[in-house]
Amino acid sequence: MPLNPDPNADTEFNDALRAHGILPPKPPTPPSPSTFLPSQAELLHSALESSSATRLGELAEDALDSDDERMFEEYRMKKLQEMKRADAAERSVAEGRGLRQIGRDEFVREVSEASAKDIEALGEDGEGRGTGVVCFLYKDSIPASNHLRQILNLLSPLHPLTRFLSIQGDQCIPNYPDKNIPTLLMYRNGDCLGQVVGLKGGLRTTAMDIERLLLGYKIIEKLNPQTARTWRRHVQSTKSGLIGGAVSSSEDDSEASEEDAAFGTIARGKKGDARGLRQGGAGLGLSGARRNQDDDSDFDL
User: Fold this and answer.
1) 119 — phi, psi (to 5°)?
2) Would the pTM count as exceeding 0.90?
3) Which residues, in sequence order, are CB contacts of 258 under 8 Å at separation 6+?
4) Quick one: average pLDDT of 113-124?
């Protein structure tokens, strides 16, 4: 045995000395450079995500292994589904579809029952999610009601997977008081998730305010960048005043409360139908949900 053994050598003798505290513990093994590099699976996933549906179809046809063929086909179907949704939104913007009028006898079918149905076009991605439904209770002689209608006319074409419906307030609910107009009812999976009564912010309420509200309740989804750009080009020259500026997610709670006050009374729904439209506290009551969405707005022009 050498007289001056290497204390860092990986030997049983050194291990025994370390166990008795004679030698210090071995330094940790530095991580391999490969630890910081993406794995082969991650690289493959990234490459397939960025491939076109046509290219993925070619890869599936050329695959020598059935597992590879199935993988390429799954990515191709996912890409086609994304394209289908984007195309539907683009057509909706161009054709001006969106907010649709209903009568009282249609409410259950068009709102409650429709919200419980999954969207077939989404396939497995839509199973159990139901359909987002926004029901707008209005009266034409009330300025805040007309203002909210303009905002919904901007938002609704961008979200063809969400149903935007309007019904005159006293047709939906007999003797519905004018002080509750406008009202938004938000449904999904057969449940009324929330009810917003009035716009305390009045004509200062912006499309971004309403977008945040609907995102917070998961009634609409984040737009893809291409659709958002198309929308900006479509309305910027004529209706940009309705869009509103961005609110930073770093704003404190006092500022968030002031923004909440732009809305009227809000009540979070229970399982089942909309009960007591005036229940709940004053203000929007969406601070927690909205803070998670502050950086997600498509209206930061």
Assistant:
1) -85, 115
2) no
3) none
4) 75
